[in-house]
Amino acid sequence: MQELAFLPTHQMAQRVLSREVSSVELLDAHLGQVARNNVRLNALVTLDEGRARARAREADAALARGEVWGPLHGVPLTIKDAFETTGLRTTSGFDRLARHMPERDATVVARLKAAGAVIVGKTNMPRLALDTQTHNTVFGRTNNPWDVERTCGGSSGGGAVAVAAGMSSLEVGSDIGGSIRIPSHFCGVFGLKPTDGRIPLSGHIPGMPGSPRGVRHQGVAGPLARTVEDLRLALRLLSGPDGQDTEMPPIPFQDVPRRELKRYRFLWTDDFGGMPVSAETRSALAGLARTLEDAGCVVERGTPELDFEQVWLTWGQLLGAEVGSEMPAAARLMTALHFRSMRGDSSINRGIMRGLWGRMSDYTQALSMRDQLMAKVESFLSGWDAWLCPVTMSPAFTHRPSGDWLEVDARRVQYMEGTAGLPILFNVTGHPAVAMPLPRASSGCLPLGVQVVGRRWGDEALLSVAEALTDVTGPFQRPPGV
Question: Where in the numbering of this chain does the Amidase domain appear (predicted)?
């Protein structure tokens, strides 16, 4: 039963449809993992066992009648606590929403249910998704399954832990500053930040329930899983307009077959404008580049000419302006004080504060800068299949107060730069990025991931590249003791 919980999602669905295993048996396997691991990891914060069992029994009964609900018929999975779920508590880690019971499903939840999924529960996150660790005053701290003394990342941290520990087959998270990719990297799973505009964020908190969408740029919904094929399955099910998010273009999903690995062309870098990156991270990326060259790929080292101070300021200004647009002055002041209190000076924090209190002209200038950065990265990627770069500056660090110093090879690094400094480039530009685990040097090592970045709107092609890369990076590895 324990091994059932670690099958890839698509294989679980195949086994249910072929009646090799029942939906109830799959659910029991996942609930067994919850019972074994959740007390020490604190990944699931709202467990919906009663309704999940009823849904699993209905799935088995429907199949016995010859009815197939969809590609996820009877498969258990979890949802980040930022996405509204009908009649199931949704808090976004925010005290004022501790008892919020939505009357509707977020679009991604509705689409998963329509595909036949069984919702096991909701996963932990930082307060209103505004941190790169996962802890809040409603549910407490979530721990990394590889080392409970270390962070799992954020803001989709609970989901990454649930997937890594076999408590969920698939998770839907959100990412406005690395929030899918950072936890995937720290926990050793696969995560997709799609092109900005591929998957609707309707029903995501923030914005606040019942209010217009607050965050109009840089934020996306996306899946976390244990295989690239499961990311592809989720993208197929979740993408496309929903009639609520008016900025979603009608781009149909396309099947892009993977090619032989040697037929791909890769750029790579471990250098983003001189930012510190751990020696372990540099060694792993250089090793991957050599392996790809040995496999016959065209591989070249390169970084676009970007001013990363400007990237960080632009990201912060847009986030601050759009999140702050819904806040009363007192809440904006508290948010500004939170980022100002972080140790060390950072362009990311200055940008957020400038956005919170900026004028409309400042906001429109930031949007213009975003367009310029988007064009530079798109031009840089022209003629290449993917760009390989670090997810963060190091593997998972030990738990610490938000905003405290980080250490990268004995060098002190500002908190936001050390966690979100690398991934937010692709939130600014909207490019799709897959975080995927690299081989570990030894059984005692923490997971280490790589960002695989592709051209805008080329999500399906990027997933095919990532799938080919697993020929040399290998499959998901289960954390010890789960």
Answer: 25-463
pLDDT tens across 245-257, in order? Answer: 888 999 999 999 9
Are 122 and 81 in contact by the 8 Å Cβ rule? The answer is: yes
Q: Confidence band (pLDDT; 50, 70, 90) for 330?
A: confident
pLDDT at site 245: 87
CB 126 within 8 A of CB 136: yes
What is the pTM for the complete model shown? 0.97
* Contact in structure between 336 and 371 (CB atoms under 8 Å): no
Region of poorest pLDDT, from 56-60, 215-219, 313-317, 403-407 = 215-219
**Catalytic machinery residues:** 80, 155, 179
Q: Which residues contact 370 (CB under 8 A, 6 or more apart)?
A: 217, 314, 318, 428, 429
Note whether 149 and 398 are within 8 A (CB): yes
Q: Which amino acid is at 22?
A: S
* Tokens found for residue 478: 């289960």
- Spatial separation of the C-alpha atoms in residues 107 and 459, rounded to whole Å: 20
Q: Are 344 and 354 in contact (CB under 8 A)?
A: no
Nearest to 163 by CA among 145, 139, 136: 145
Element (H, E) at 299: strand 298-301
Check whether 278 has a pLDDT greater than 80.
yes
* Domain architecture of the chain: domains with CATH: 3-238 (3.90.1300.10), 262-473 (3.90.1300.10)
CB atoms within 10 A of CB 374: 16
Amino acid at 356: L
| Beta strand pairing call for 190-193 and 433-437 | antiparallel
